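Customer escalation, tier 2.

The customer says the design service returned an amino acid string that "doesn't look like it belongs to this structure." They asked us to rerun it and document both sides in this ticket. The original structure tokens are below, unchanged.
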């Protein structure tokens, strides 16, 4: 499905980059873990500005796969119920934004004791889901910085990496429009089990990294190289048996990979009282 709200900057950037990429993609195997190929149930919020309910795939902005994990709507609603109770305390935080890999970082506050952090990961989320909820879940918090990891579920549900990259670039463009001084660390999509994924993920990561390098407030965290073996498969010591989600050792690797990027950007956020 093609992006229905293109920004000229995205087109101007992606066309020449795509022409330089000679990677070809083979078909994807059956979806793994959270990426079941069932459409999420339709749930419509009464208030169009209320993103607490998953709106249904066809109401999402940007490019999106035909199907998403059938548990997404329930996880989405529960996350928003939880966040509503402490949203005021998360204002000014470094916001970690993404899918289940972000949502599962249960030691996040302990791992960054000197930062005020807020977790806005939703299991099963896709890039168009992040576009849909970006304002309410992240920008309304006036974040000190944003750490973004998103895209594996799009690719896992057969979305073209170029379309996924376009969504991520649109996310970054909206953040910049909201506040051009907001630092954003874009984590590369991590490896996942399956022979066809390395080429797909490399194409996605290359497109996004090329754009990020043009923006002084954005930085890349190489969470591909930190986990991939010589064949582009996930290092088993860092992943659960599904070869998609991180175990405790994997989160320690993410922390170690992210820390120097945070330090280089002089990112700081006062702890919430």
């Amino acid at each position: 499905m093609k992006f229905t709200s293109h920004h000229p900057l995205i087109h101007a950037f992606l066309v020449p980059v795509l022409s330089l990429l000679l990677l070809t993609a083979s078909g994807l195997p059956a979806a793994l873990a959270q990426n079941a190929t069932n459409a999420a149930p339709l749930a419509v919020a009464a208030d169009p500005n209320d993103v607490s309910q998953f709106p249904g795939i066809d109401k999402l902005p940007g490019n999106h796969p035909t199907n998403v994990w059938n548990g997404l709507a329930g996880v989405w609603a529960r996350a928003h119920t939880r966040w509503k109770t402490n949203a005021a305390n998360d204002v000014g935080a470094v916001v970690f934004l993404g899918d289940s890999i972000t949502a599962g970082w249960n030691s996040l506050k302990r791992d960054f004791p000197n930062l005020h952090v807020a977790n806005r990961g939703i299991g099963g989320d896709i890039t168009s889901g992040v576009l849909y909820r970006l304002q309410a879940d992240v920008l309304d918090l006036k974040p000190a910085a944003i750490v973004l990891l998103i895209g594996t579920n799009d690719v896992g549900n057969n979305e073209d990496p170029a379309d996924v990259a376009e969504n991520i670039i649109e996310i970054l463009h909206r953040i910049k429009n909201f506040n051009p001084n907001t630092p954003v660390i874009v984590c590369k999509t991590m490896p996942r089990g399956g022979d066809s994924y390395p080429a797909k993920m490399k194409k996605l990561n290359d497109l996004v990294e090329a754009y990020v390098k043009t923006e002084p407030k954005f930085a890349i965290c190489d969470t591909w190289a930190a986990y991939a073996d010589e064949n582009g498969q996930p290092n088993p010591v860092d992943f659960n048996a599904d070869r998609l989600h991180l175990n405790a050792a994997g989160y320690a690797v993410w922390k170690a990979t992210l820390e120097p990027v945070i330090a280089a950007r002089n990112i700081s956020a006062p702890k919430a009282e």
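Tier 2 assessment: The sequence is consistent with the input. Residues 30-264 form a domain with the Rossmann fold fold (CATH 3.40.50.1110). The first strand starts at residue 94 and ends at 98. Sent an explanation to the customer and offered a walkthrough call.
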